From TrEMBL:
Keywords: Oxidoreductase. Residues 182-278 form the 3-hydroxyacyl-CoA dehydrogenase C-terminal domain. Pfam families: 3HCDH, 3HCDH_N. It comes from the Bacteria. Belongs to the 3-hydroxyacyl-CoA dehydrogenase family. SUPFAM superfamilies: 6-phosphogluconate dehydrogenase C-terminal domain-like, NAD(P)-binding Rossmann-fold domains. Residues 5-179 form the 3-hydroxyacyl-CoA dehydrogenase NAD binding domain. This is 3-hydroxybutyryl-CoA dehydrogenase. The record marks 135 as: Important for catalytic activity. GO terms for molecular function: 3-hydroxybutyryl-CoA dehydrogenase activity; NAD+ binding. Pathway: Lipid metabolism; butanoate metabolism. GO terms for biological process: fatty acid beta-oxidation.
Length: 302
C-alpha cells in the first residue's frame, strides 16, 4: 500500500499526510475548503521543519503530497483512504457515502475518529467491512502511537493490513480487541480531565496547580513506567488498598460546571483569550512549541 488518499486537510489530515510522506508513501489530499488546500504545502513544510527534517530533504517529502480537486479525482489514484473530517457522525456519513460511490468495495478506509464508536461511523456504508479505526495522536508527525480498532462488521484482514503498514512505518501500533468509544488513550486521558474538573468544582485548588502537579510528577513518571507496570511494581495489594480508599471520592460526573461556567460567559479557551486559564497574545504559539519540544525530548530519551 503506497498511495493514500486523505479526506480532510485540517489539523489531523495534514499531520497524517506528513507522517505518511516521510515514510515514503504518496499522498493525495482532498478538502472541500479551498483555503485548506491552498495552505497545505506551507503547513506541511512547517511541520517538516518542526520534525527536524534537513532543509535539503524537505522538497523530496513535500513532492509526495498533492492536492485533489474532487473526491473522484482522488479516488482514481489511491490504494487506501484516510477519513479525517470533523468529529460529527452526520459529516462522516455524508463523506463516506459520497466517497464509496466512486471506488471498488475492496479499497480500505481508515477513520481517524478519536471518540466516536467505529460501528456508528460505519452505519450507512455500502461495505462496512473495510472500515478500520486508525487513531493518530496530534501532532501525528511526532507522536508515534497509533491505535487500531475494528468495528462490529470489520473484516479483520483490513485491521491486520493497517497494522502491518503502520508497523512498517516504525509507528508504535496498538490493536484493540473490539470497538469502544474513545479507544484507549482518550478514555484514560479524559478520566484524568474529569477528576481534575472535580477538584476545581470542590475548590481544592486552581487550574495552574493541577497542571503543575501533573507536569512535575505524573508526566515525568508515565513517560517511563505505565500505570499497569507501576501497579505491579508497588504491589497489587497496595494498589487495591489505595483504590478502595480513593474510589468512593472520585468523580463519576456526566455534567461539568467547571466547563459550563466559562463557556456560558463566552470563554472557550485559547481561541477566545480565556477559559480555565488566561491566554494573552502569543501564549498559544508558546504552548504549541513547548508541546512539540517536550515530545521530541521524551522521544530522544527513550
Amino acid at each position: 500500500m503506497t498511495r493514500f488518499g486523505i479526506i480532510g486537510g485540517g489539523l489531523m489530515g495534514h499531520g497524517i499526510a506528513v507522517a505518511l510522506a516521510r515514510a515514503g508513501h504518496r499522498v493525495v489530499v482532498y478538502d472541500e475548503d479551498p483555503a485548506a488546500l491552498a495552505s497545505l504545502d506551507e503547513r506541511i513544510a512547517r511541520a517538516l521543519e518542526r520534525c527536524g527534517v534537513p532543509p535539503g530533504d524537505v522538497g523530496a517529502v513535500t513532492a509526495r503530497v498533492t492536492a485533489a480537486r474532487s473526491l473522484s479525482d482522488m479516488s482514481s489514484c489511491v490504494d487506501a483512504v484516510v477519513e479525517a473530517v470533523s468529529e460529527r457522525l452526520d459529516v462522516k456519513h455524508q463523506v463516506l457515502e459520497a466517497w464509496e460511490a466512486t471506488v471498488p468495495p475492496v479499497l480500505p478506509v481508515w477513520s481517524t475518529t478519536s471518540v466516536l464508536p467505529l460501528t456508528d461511523v460505519a452505519k450507512g456504508m455500502r461495505h462496512p467491512q473495510r472500515l478500520v479505526g486508525v487513531h493518530w495522536w496530534n501532532p501525528a508527525y511526532l507522536v508515534p502511537l497509533v491505535e487500531v480498532a475494528p468495528g462490529a462488521e470489520t473484516d479483520h484482514r483490513f485491521v491486520q493490513e493497517a497494522c502491518d503498514v503502520l508497523n512498517g512505518m516504525g509507528r508504535t501500533t496498538v490493536r484493540l480487541h473490539r470497538d469502544v468509544p474513545g479507544f484507549i488513550g482518550n478514555r484514560l486521558q479524559f478520566a484524568l480531565v474529569r477528576e481534575a474538573l472535580h477538584l476545581l468544582e470542590q475548590e481544592v485548588c486552581d487550574p495552574v496547580t493541577i497542571d503543575t502537579v501533573v507536569r512535575a510528577s505524573l508526566g515525568l513518571r508515565w513517560s517511563a513506567v505505565g500505570p499497569m507496570e507501576n501497579a505491579d511494581f508497588i504491589g497489587l495489594d497496595l494498589t487495591r488498598n489505595i483504590l478502595s480508599s480513593l474510589a468512593p471520592h472520585l468523580s463519576a460526573a456526566v455534567a461539568f460546571p467547571a466547563l459550563d461556567e466559562p463557556l456560558d460567559a463566552g470563554q472557550r479557551g485559547r481561541a477566545s483569550g480565556g477559559g480555565l486559564l488566561t491566554w494573552p497574545p502569543g501564549r498559544g504559539e508558546e504552548v504549541a512549541q513547548r508541546l512539540e519540544d517536550g515530545i521530541r525530548r521524551n522521544l530522544g530519551a527513550q
